[in-house]
Specification:
- The protein has one domain: Fumarate Reductase Cytochrome B subunit (Up-down Bundle), CATH 1.20.950.
- Helices cover about 60% and strands about 5% of the residues.
- It is built from four helices and two strands.
- It has helices at about 10-35, 45-70, 85-115, 140-180, and strands at about 120-125, 125-130.
- The chain has a two-stranded antiparallel ribbon with strand order 1-2.
- Helix 1 (about 10-35) packs antiparallel against helix 2 and helix 2 crosses helix 3.
- The chain is elongated, with a radius of gyration of 19 Å.
- It starts with 11 loop residues before the first helix and ends in an 18-residue tail after the last helix.
Length: about 200
């Protein structure tokens, strides 16, 4: 299996980024739902929030890389015989997923950066990840509506992912095991794709 994508399957870079981002997104959605129900007094809440932020920043970096990689190294075409409506749904879903994996962590980063506290993120408690500089010097009163906007947007996008990610997984399983068109096998390391050398 090569580094680059081929006509039949994704390469190792696309596979690695896909599965790393998927794992981080699912972990962060789970953490986000969990910490949302924690009282402010919970002694673990600060640590959980910092891990959530660190994972989000990691997803943001990996997402920019995978978008650039996809532009430079296009993915395999959809299987022959895929109907026009299914092609449209696949392209729309992939576009929305790519948008979400960039927009969700970016709005989170903007939310943290617009905090009146001005605290940087202790990235996995290894070093301080700086905030975006756009909001420095703004008053608490000016920051409050901005932070609320980014917080609301971050939440809406996250809930969109909560709906879309399971649909994406179910569609991949349907293609692989009902339609038997090797769609899932193309992105899973070690799975054989018909026509592979």
């Amino acid at each position: 299996m090569g580094i680059r994508n081929t006509a039949l399957r994704y390469g190792t870079i696309a596979m690695a980024l896909h599965w790393l981002i998927a794992a981080f997104v699912i972990a962060n959605i789970s953490l986000g739902l969990y910490m949302g129900d924690l009282p402010r007094s919970d002694p673990n809440k600060f640590t959980i929030i910092q891990i959530h932020k660190s994972i989000g920043l990691t997803v943001l970096v990996f997402s920019v890389i995978i978008v650039l990689w996809r532009l430079w190294n296009p993915p395999p075409a959809l299987p022959k015989g895929t109907s026009a409506p299914m092609r449209l749904a696949a392209h729309a879903t992939h576009f929305l997923l790519y948008f979400l994996i960039v927009a969700i962590p970016l709005t989170g980063y903007l939310l943290v950066s617009a905090s009146p506290l001005g605290n940087s993120t202790p990235y996995f408690f290894l070093f301080d990840w700086p905030n975006l500089p756009f909001f420095s010097g703004m008053t608490r009163e000016a920051l409050h509506p901005i932070q609320h906007l980014f917080g609301r947007t971050h939440s809406i996008l996250a809930w969109t992912a909560i709906v879309l990610v399971p649909l994406h997984i179910l569609a991949a399983l349907y293609h692989q095991f009902a339609l038997r068109d090797n769609l899932l096998a193309r992105i899973v390391p070690g799975m054989r794709v018909r026509g592979d050398a």
